[in-house]
């Protein structure tokens, strides 16, 4: 008589948690630990995130602060989503502001120092495909002496009407690389990089702040967060 599958023994030691759940659990634990070690928590949002620039900022502030960018629900669970389950009194107020592109900034820095840091933080970089051009870039007909003759085939692939004239790359007609207010194409992004034109600025905006005796909302950051939500809807 064949054995019933119901009666097969299950070795619990062999069952493994999903990597995603383990990772989320670790983040929740790290946020809860940060709550105990820092005096203030801020929700922030951002424009044109650049991972390396953020990594540099983390390194710069590691003695006084910690930054978390994780899933919205993960961060909310760690803070608490209501007064009944919040980690500390009032912390759940931050959770409703964790929407869209937001993160948590834990710090022991004075409020004025944090506000100045976020206000002055600005890192320029090259625009990526799909981002909006902040100005119109137009190349005029004539020699493009900044490019070597080996670049001519690549420039043609980016849509530039070029040719070699006595070993010099020459634009045979005017060419609009990108137009202000319109999305940047993959070819335009490559061309802007070659031209050294940076159109992206990585910026940070404070949305709200919690401390044991205070809670504050920043109007500019909140307006920016709402504008981003409207653009994505």
Q: Indicate the percent of residues in helices.
A: 25-40%
Q: What shape does the CA trace take?
A: elongated
Pattern of helices and strands: HEHEHHEHEEEHEEEHEEH
Low-confidence stretches are none
Count of β-strands: 11
Number of helices: 8
Rg, Cα atoms, Å? 25 Å
Amino-to-carboxy terminus distance:
61 Å
| Biggest sheet descriptor | 6 strands, antiparallel
Q: Calculate the mean pLDDT score and round it.
A: 90
Question: What does this entry look like structurally?
Answer:
This protein is elongated. The protein is of the alpha+beta class. The protein has helices spanning 19-37, 51-61, 72-79, 92-95, 111-120, 152-157, 186-195, 219-232, and strands at 40-47, 65-68, 102-107, 122-125, 137-139, 142-143, 162-165, 168-171, 175-178, 200-211, 214-217. The chain contains eight helices and eleven strands. The termini are far apart. The longest helix is centred in the first third of the chain and has 19 residues, at 19-37. Strand 7 (162-165) and strand 8 (168-171) form a beta hairpin.
A few lines on this structure:
This protein is an alpha+beta fold. It is 35% helix and 24% strand. The strands form three sheets. Strands 1, 2, 3, 4, 10 and 11 form a six-stranded antiparallel β-sheet that branches. Strands 6-8-7 form a three-stranded antiparallel β-sheet. A two-stranded antiparallel sheet has the order 5-9.
């Amino acid at each position: 008589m064949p054995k019933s599958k119901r009666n097969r023994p299950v070795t619990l030691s062999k069952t493994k948690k999903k990597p995603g759940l383990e990772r989320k659990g670790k983040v929740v634990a790290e946020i809860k630990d940060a709550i105990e070690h820092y005096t203030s928590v801020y929700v922030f949002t951002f424009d044109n995130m650049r991972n390396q620039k953020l990594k540099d900022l983390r390194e710069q502030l590691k003695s006084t602060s910690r930054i978390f960018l994780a899933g919205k629900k993960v961060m909310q669970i760690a803070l608490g989503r209501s007064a009944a389950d919040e980690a500390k009194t009032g912390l759940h107020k931050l959770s409703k502001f964790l929407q869209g592109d937001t993160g948590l900034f834990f710090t022991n820095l004075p409020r004025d120092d944090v506000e100045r840091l976020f206000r002055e933080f600005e890192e320029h970089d090259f625009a990526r495909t799909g981002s909006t051009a902040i100005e119109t870039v137009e190349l005029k007909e004539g020699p493009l002496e900044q490019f070597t003759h080996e670049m001519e085939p690549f420039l043609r692939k980016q849509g530039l009407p070029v040719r070699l004239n006595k070993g010099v790359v020459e634009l045979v007609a005017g060419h609009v690389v990108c137009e202000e207010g319109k999305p940047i194409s993959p070819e335009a992004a490559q061309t802007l990089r070659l031209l050294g034109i940076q159109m992206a600025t990585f910026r940070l905006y404070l949305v709200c702040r919690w401390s044991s005796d205070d809670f504050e909302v920043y109007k500019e950051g909140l307006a920016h967060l709402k504008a981003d939500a409207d653009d994505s809807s």
